[in-house]
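[Meeting: bench + compute handoff]

Bench side (C.D.) handed over the final construct sequence. Compute side (W.E.) agreed to return the predicted structure before the next meeting so the bench team could plan truncations. Sequence as handed over:
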Amino acid sequence: MPQHKSAAKRVRQDEVKRSRNRVQRSKLRTMVKNLKQTTDKSEATVELSEVKSLLDRLVGKNILKKNQAANYKSSLEKSVNAL
């Protein structure tokens, strides 16, 4: 348990941030899963742009690292181009 008020506040803040970040990551994983299940190239292209936009937003909020987002984008581009 935290011994100081400020440490207790940080614990509370971290819990809130963690829950928000988990929601965002879950949303990303769901979108990626839906994109991978898509068989129509035109649909996949639209979904890919949405996923890329979300990845960029998550990098801006420091939820994902820049390189991790780049790896996601690269692998998803390859899978969409293979359709």
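W.E. noted at the follow-up: DSSP finds three helices and no strands in the chain. C.D. will use this when planning the next construct.
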